[in-house]
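Z., the sequence and structure:
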Amino acid sequence: MKRIGAVVSRLAGRRETEPGAQGTAVGGELRTEVSDGVRLVHSPYEDPPGEDVGAWRSLRRDASVVTVVVGAVAAGHAALWPALGEVLDSLAEEGVEEVRPALADAAAERTGGRAPLAERIADIWGLRVIAAQGAIAALPDGSLFAYGAGDRRATWCRFRPQGGTEVLGPRDPAPPWQAAYERLPRRLDGDCVVDAVPAGVLVRGAGDVSTGPGHLAYAVPPDEHRPLVLIGGARGRPAPAAAVATALAALPGDARDATALAPGAHQDVLPVAQEVADLLGMEVEVLTGLPLTSADDALGAPHTVTLTDAAGRPTRRPTVGTVRCLPTNGTARRQPPRRVRLRSPLAEGRLSGDGTVELSDRRRLTLTRPGALLQERSVPPAHAAHRPVDPERFVIEVAWRGSETDPSLLRACELVLNTLHPQLRRYAELRVGGMTGEALRDATRMAVRHGVALTRGPVLLPVPGQAGAGAVAGADSGAGMARPPAARPQVTRPPSARRPRSGPGGSR
């Protein structure tokens, strides 16, 4: 059998053991598990791989490449290299031509100017080797991402037997847009920097915390059709639009057209996206949250736009997941953003392409970024972005004013609350206009009965004759997004209301 020696390269960014070292003897022989396209070398003292199938079986790359994964305990075992040698011997005998060792810094030049570990494997076993220069993060979709600390460049490389190295970029497998994103500058004007993340890049302030495996951005795998520019923080606020626009402008046209913006934290970045559209004179797509999966989703379920709170915890899934910002065309009035991706908040009723659900021959529910608006069908649908998004509130606005109850409006509210998705109900808030007397009593009882909050504050009112427009009663209306009222509305939360113990997210 062929052997390299006792050089041990460890996972999670640890340094390799110096030449001649024997590793840490933890007892017991190492075991090798075999799956389609993946080999796992692990210690019997580690959790059996069957208890967490997605942790290593999902790392299959494609039919022509075998991934070799080393468990965290096995990485320091004295018998690591004999075990790896046997795995590589068996793969060579099977006719495998390319392997991908999931070992941190296997592509990095070692101390004393010695050849990278991956190069030695390629030369000794006659295999093509895909290896990382940097630490490795396993992503939810089974792909791998190489990352480094500070300004250190991390990338995957392909080594060929007896010479020849190809730099591939930080994501493996590489999405079609990877090469274009590698051209982006590391530093931008406005004291901002660009961090590579699995889904694209994150633009943040130079003084803000850098990204890494603990950052929420690492929960978003790359999409081969739609790279993301995440808008991070800069001194407590979203990164400036000028820096984001500079990054987009540095991309080739096809990659720029495919790119969408998304929040890198819990803040609403729609105002930044609108300014970027104005600066570049192009339409810009912006996600309301980050594409994530929840613990309730089935294995392999598609990622869905999800809002997160200030601590990075997922809260709910917005009904308007994506909008497209239109650049100003020289007119005084800015066009409101267009809805692109929608999810109905109701278990019943057909969602139309304009973002509405018909409730009766008189009423309909119009979806907005912060929640929904109960409207009469005789008025144009309200636009999607009249208020900022609150990750912990799904606001159902009802233009219910005065002291008398409107029976048709009451029935429409009952229908919405009766069919509201259970996972969205815990965040639901019924917001009504200035109402008193019998109307206030009936609205409060209805909220108590359905276990949702009732708030009294400004609601969006339609502007006659202007499709997709509206004004907020009791507040100044702006172009595209109205400024929220200075004071938060009064909240009446029924004492008997109970939040269901359902997982975060909204209707699927």
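The chain is about 15% helix and 25% strand. The radius of gyration is 27 Å.

Let me know what you think.
H.
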